[in-house]
Amino acid sequence: MAGDAPAPRLPHRPEKGDRTAVHRETGKYHDCKKKGIYVCACCGTALFSSDAKFDSGTGWPSFSAPIARENIATAQDTDLGYVRTEVLCARCDAHLGHVFDDGPPPTHMRYCMNSASLRLLVQG
Length: 124
Ligand SMILES: [Zn+2]
What we know:
It is a single chain. By secondary structure, the protein is mostly beta strands. It has one domain: Metal Binding Protein, Guanine Nucleotide Exchange Factor, Chain A. It is built from 1 helix and 9 strands. It has one helix spanning 18-25; strands at 36-40, 46-49, 53-54, 62-63, 72-77, 84-89, 95-100, 110-113, 118-122.
């Protein structure tokens, strides 16, 4: 699995086509303020509520807690030469992002997610 590797470079010859759209896709939820449930883009498991979303200033959608602990799995990731905690979908094993312990109270957790791994089911 590619993890958080940067998106492949776009060709210098921009075309009005899907490549640009795919590139934008990776950050589409970072400033999204809509209410709803973020589910796994692969299997639809509910992962995060918009209520737990906060602006971390990182450009990544960030959450202080998952909607249910059993819906996510974690694994140690040493891809960058230091230990991070990778977050996976507990049901389909999709890579979702990473979790850090520098989030806001009361959980102090920061689930730093990849927009491409999430799908927002807008409520209301
Ligand atoms: Zn999944």
